[in-house]
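Lab meeting, item 3. Inverse folding demo.
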C-alpha cells in the first residue's frame, strides 16, 4: 500500500547538510510505499513480520529513496550475511512451510540480531496499522554541510497517532475479519 504527501522542513538543518531538501521551509512531495518484508503478496497482513517502507522524495535535484522498517535496529550489521538471512526467513524449500527453527538456527550465530528478534517476536511484530507504527531508516547517511563538516545521521519517523500493535488474540480476531487490515 502507499500514501502521497509532503515533507516539510520545520527546523534549520544547515549545520548538518547543504542538501536543498533539508533547507528550512522546503516542501518536498513524497510517496511512501509500505510492505511486509518476508511474506509475499496476498499473505495475511497479520503475519509476524517486519514492516518495510520506502519514502521517495521528489526533490528539485532529483528523486531520492529512503528505505526503512518499523524496527529501530536491523538484524545484521555485515552485508555479506544478507543472502543467508533472507533464506532463513523464507519458507523451507522442501516443505514450502514457514519454519521458526530455520530462523533461530541462522540467528544463533548472529548475536547482533538479538534485539531485533526480540522486537519481531513481541507484539511489535504485528502492528495494528501503518499509521500507528514508527519508522526507522535502515542505513546511516553521511551528510556534509557548507563548511565541509561531516555528520552521520539516521532517520526516524515517529507516529503522531502513537504506537499500536496486535496481541496474539487480536491477530486471530483481525485476520478472521479482514485479511488485508493494514491495506484497507
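The presenter then showed the designed sequence:
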Amino acid at each position: 500500500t502507499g500514501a502521497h504527501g509532503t515533507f516539510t522542513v520545520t527546523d534549520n538543518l544547515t549545520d548538518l547538510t547543504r542538501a536543498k531538501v533539508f533547507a528550512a521551509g522546503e516542501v518536498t512531495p513524497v510517496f511512501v510505499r509500505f510492505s511486509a518484508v518476508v511474506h509475499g503478496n496476498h499473505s495475511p497482513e497479520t503475519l509476524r513480520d517486519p514492516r518495510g517502507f520506502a519514502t521517495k522524495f521528489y526533490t528539485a535535484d532529483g528523486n531520492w529513496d529512503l528505505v526503512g522498517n518499523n524496527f529501530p535496529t536491523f538484524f545484521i550489521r555485515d552485508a555479506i550475511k544478507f543472502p543467508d538471512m533472507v533464506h532463513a526467513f523464507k519458507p523451507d524449500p522442501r516443505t514450502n512451510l514457514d519454519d521458526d527453527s530455520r530462523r533461530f538456527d541462522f540467528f544463533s550465530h548472529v548475536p547482533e540480531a538479538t534485539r531485533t528478534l526480540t522486537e519481531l517476536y513481541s507484539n511489535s511484530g504485528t502492528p495494528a496499522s501503518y499509521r500507528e507504527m514508527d519508522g526507522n531508516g535502515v542505513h546511516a547517511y553521511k551528510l556534509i554541510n557548507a563548511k565541509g563538516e561531516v555528520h552521520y545521521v539516521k532517520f526516524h519517523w515517529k507516529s503522531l497517532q502513537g504506537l499500536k500493535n496486535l496481541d496474539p488474540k487480536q491477530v486471530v480476531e483481525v485476520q478472521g475479519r479482514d485479511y488485508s487490515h493494514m491495506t484497507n
